[in-house]
What we know:
By secondary structure, this protein is mainly alpha-helical. It has one domain (about 5-155): Ferritin, core subunit, four-helix bundle (Ferritin), CATH 1.20.1260. It contains 5 helices and no strands. The protein has helices spanning about 5-30, 35-60, 65-90, 95-125, 125-155. Helix 2 packs antiparallel against helix 5 and helix 4 runs antiparallel to helix 5. Bound molecules: fe (ii) ion.
Amino acid sequence: MAELTTLESKLGEVVGLAMAAQEATQKVMKLPELEEELAQKLERMNEEAAEAERRGTELAGSFEGKKTAILEEARETKSKAKEMLSTYLDDESDALDGFEFLTMAEAGEVGHWSVLETLNQRARDAAIGEYVEWGLPIQERHLEDVKQASEQLASEKNPSEPA
Ligand SMILES: [Fe+2]
């Protein structure tokens, strides 16, 4: 398979995290104690993750002869993230656990998109620039939203009750 540059490989990781985010949001949507308003937020995050995957996949196609390798990188990242998801959330998990997991996952996404942005400051690929400009603020909002949701769910808990 074609060898990837650091920039191309990071694009693959970002796409892989977008794939994983769709599964994570779906899983959290099924957890107990999830309120309607939060379910709607998850729905939107899920759609935006799908859009990030779609745009990123299209972008991968603009790297001559590299698309397959970039998407292979994406799938690898996705399967690692999926493993983390299934390790963290189990049958006893509730919505708060779900949003705590998403806080880690979204922080990871923000970190990866920022790395892609930094690499592109030297690579100056116009399409990557456009992708990051579109996606990074969305990931920052995701992180803010899931952190807020965790705090909201935590504030409704009785700290003295058995876990
Ligand atoms: Fe996200």
